[in-house]
Amino acid sequence: MVDESEQFFECEEYIETALSLSLTGKNEEALKVIDKAIKIKPDFAQAYNKKGDFLFKLGRIKEALDCYLKSKELNKDNQNNYYDLGRTYLMLGDYTNALENFKIANQMKAQTDIHAFIGKIYYEQGNLKDAKASFENVLREDDHHMMSVYYYALILVQEGNLAQAKGYFNKVIEKYARLVRSKKNFAEGYYYLGKCYFYLEDYEKAEENLKLAIQYDTDSVDNHYSFEMFYTDAEAFAALAEIQSKLSKNEEAKENLLKALSLEPNNKKILDLKTKLGY
Predict the structure, then answer these.
(1) What CATH fold (topology level) applies to the domain 1-77?
(2) Which CATH architecture has domain 183-279?
(3) Residue 194 contacts by C-beta under 8 Å, 6 or more apart in sequence?
(4) How far from chain centre, in Å, is Cα 110?
(5) pTM value?
(6) pLDDT tens string for the chain (279 positions)?
(7) Which of 71, 140, 179, 226 is the most exposed place for a label (fewest CB within 10 A)?
């Protein structure tokens, strides 16, 4: 006869080991360990949720989605499942399902991060009024919430208020500059430094940092996230192309834009940039 309590504790041990591996960046190894927990107890919702986390960190977003859906199926009362589904759908560009899951998560337990995610969805949908209101609510509680600071600055740029946006971009630059000093191969840090310098019209610094973002990228990950701000390899090449066009480096810009399109040929933002640059 199977002792269910022994099964549970064995699974818990596997989960703890997997989490420890993931914290040191060993997500492939963490996946192997978490699969042992799932094999012992196939109805253990937490194991599927953590497997989703490891897959998400590896950029295997669609596989992560399947795990989070399975975890929700097994435990509909866990707020983490809805939160994780929200950010995964957001990463996949499915704003309808992302918003639905974030709203459920927020009803279960209101969180600053959830309000920021909702603001980001409104921003991506072009609803700047509601996006701005969401980010202002977050920033009243935490004026250094990086995702909110960055997207609030983007909204100010679109409103033509570059002078005010500058202060917010400089907050992001200050944060990431510290991070890349302590972790020199932090691709995500260089990406957002590059993007901020682009909006501040310091195109040389922007190009320098975007090149470092691409240089320190790894082949195993094509989706990146930092402070829950997501970007793909294709978006990094497109950002570099836009910067290089500002520097009149047209051949390099065209080459990087074509690299972006080879990775994501149907990405509307990149296709719009191609039209804008005339390539």
Answers:
(1) 1.25.40
(2) Alpha Horseshoe (1.25)
(3) 205, 206, 207, 208, 209, 210, 212, 213, 239, 240, 243
(4) 21
(5) 0.85
(6) 456 778 888 899 999 999 999 988 899 999 999 999 999 999 999 999 999 999 998 888 999 999 999 999 999 999 999 999 999 999 888 999 999 999 999 999 989 999 999 999 999 999 999 999 999 999 999 999 999 999 999 999 999 999 999 999 999 999 999 999 999 899 999 999 999 999 999 999 999 999 999 999 876 666 677 887 888 899 999 999 999 999 999 999 999 999 999 999 999 899 999 999 998
(7) 140
